Amino acid sequence: MMATMHTLGIVVPSNGCCTRRNYNSRSEAEFCGGKIVPRRARGFVAGVEAVDLAELFNLRRNAPERVREVQAVGKSSRIWASVSEVDEAPKKIKKVEQKQLILKPPLSDSNLAERFLSSPQLQVKKFPLLSSCLPVVNLNRLDQEWIDEYLIEVKDALGYSIEILEAPEDSPASHLDSLLFLAFQHKFSKRGRTKLVGIGHSRLAFLGQYVLELAFSELLLQMYPTERVGSLRERVFNVTNKRVLPKWLYKASLNAIVFPAEETEQIPKDDRQVAVRSVFWALIAANYLTLGMPEVYRILFEVFGIDLEAPEALPKPRTSLPDEDYLSPDLERKLTWQEIAAYQAPEDSLFSSPRLFRACVPPGMHRFRGNEWEILSLPKVMEALEYPRPVQDSQPEITEARNIELGLGLQLCFLHPCKFKGDHPRFCYDRLEYIGQKIQDVILAEQLLMKHLDGPAIWLERKHRLQLMNRLCGRTLREKKLTWHIAYDEERKELFEKNRRLRNFATTSVQHAIHGLGYLVYGRSDVRRLMSKIFPVEHLIPRNFL
């Protein structure tokens, strides 16, 4: 009985005013001066006219109009007065004081101009790409303290020669100190958390990832001229993935500089892998901008000790097709990375990169001279691509030989693997596509860095990815009606006629192969021309993506 009355929580105070509360115990109810009403008396109040409690609380919701109606009927005024007082009490609204924001006054025109003109990016006019990767503002006292403490150790670990350390002020190597400082300031370090230093490091890492891919593609295509492109890509991944990169930094004794003792325990393992990868890419970019591609190869193989013949670097075994074609005399023996890094093209050479051209375009392509494709399709393709380019040669025979090789290279660019790969594995655009994709990434990354001097890497990476989307890369190739000249076998041709979307991969590969051929024959200037004039990738971004 007591539990039932306790659950009801209906109390009649001694003053006769009916209230409803949830008391935790009987003593608490008695302390308030009331008594618990039995179960059979639920809904009624003793000593007052019979009033249903349910009606009472419904009246509280509809007050004050309903209260006045009940009062007019003659109910007890003491009960309704208390109800109306509760319902008609004004609610207190807290006034929130407005926060006063203190804004810095804008810079004057003279101060703003002085700030821009004093930026290190605008002081190096001879090297626009190098200047775009320099710090936005001059280094402060804390940055200089880091340089004084760690830079000598970094240069000692990287093994720079005396000529590099004593470079004149007008050379790119004179800016090596600033770039090395930015290379080690990853986003989890103390100095890397500052905005301008973090942006400078991210821009270096953005360029370094594509330079690393280009360096390995040029190296592996010459070292393994008969190996499949899939195996070459797997070799690159095996020596540059995030699980292996800490090993290379440890071999170079740079791990203590990347993660000082007081910061190692504060950074989780996954974040350490991200930091190591960004530092590795930034180091590659710093050496590429100041000392060139040969120094990048030296850093990779001498300092970091990368071994392409190690068991963990070898690709998975694949069923290799017999290669009946012969190799160029320069590629008959296996080349070392020192020979590839120190190679310079002769003055009267046919191509910008002669040995790399021979590694991608096999000599056996001369058997295709005079075929149907060369007669019907080659003139239209060369007219659409504005080939051949004007080059000043010492002898007209050199120009004629280059144009012949260019025609064979273009025929290889439009040769789908399904046509002759069964008998001749290298008679397709695979190798040209591989080098063309990498040089296209580097050229566009350099253009974005020079165009957007203060853009963070995360924004540049998104813009880079959108401009080179696979579903947009073959669009201009289709608009110029060059897809009609791609050579397929009969079975694949019927399949592509039924479903045009399956052809998109082939059009993208052909466009990459054209970029690769232009790079091998005429150099980077021709790749820039193709990307800006023939295949303008910057104008293909949908507006809703930006």
From TrEMBL:
One of its GO terms (biological process) is regulation of gene expression. It comes from the Eukaryota. Keywords: RNA-binding. One of its GO terms (cellular component) is nucleus. GO terms for molecular function: double-stranded RNA binding; ribonuclease III activity. It comes from Marchantia polymorpha subsp. ruderalis. CDD domains: RIBOc. The keyword Ubl conjugation does not apply. Residues 151-292 form the RNase III domain. Coiled coil: none annotated. This is RNase III domain-containing protein. Pfam families: Ribonuclease_3 (PF00636). InterPro entries: RNase_III_dom (IPR000999), RNase_III_sf (IPR036389).
